Amino acid sequence: MAVKTLNVNEDILGANDMLAENLRGRFEASKVFVMNLMSSPGAGKTSVILKIIEALSGKHKIGVIEGDIASDVDARKIQKTNVDVVQINTRGACHLDANMILSATDSLGLEGKQLLIIENVGNLVCPANYDLGEALKVVVASPTEGDDKPLKYPEMFRNAAVLIVNKIDLLPYLDCDIEALKYNARQINPKLIIFETSCTTKAGIAEWCNWIIKQLPTVE
User: What pLDDT, on a 0 to 100 scale, did the predictor assign at position 218?
Assistant: First the structure.
């Protein structure tokens, strides 16, 4: 009897992608722009989200989905801004998937929202390959991680549309060449749109938020 090999990973991703396409259609029909923020732990995803809320929430209705292995620490930070937020705890899984997002959006509600921000689990590997129905993927990198991360985790940077180099206020104290970081990232993905930001000094935040505003669907 011949041995039959099953490619389980391919089957899982295929099912996820079908659901993600359905989600994408739902987001587009609801005129909601969806961003999937990804990074290693501690690069500053939540801080970036808080700055977006600070800049946009007065004129644009925002929703946030927080993904973590455990706890609701970040969701409680978002909640203090009076923005709608739903926490997903993966209980060990290193990424969010489309089914989790479907459940979260059902709970969050899309009506009236123009921007939905998904904060993925802190990980530069698994989240890169899972479509969540988002309009685009955003990777946040920090100079504290060094300038070689695009070379070590190419799939993350290849699949992202935007790179945010965050915490640039720390550059004088670190052995990180930001130009090398950007060069390495563009070697992987020449089409990357890159912003340099500091959530502490607010450097680059206005440029980043103005870019987001230009992506939002027009509400009739």
Answer: 79
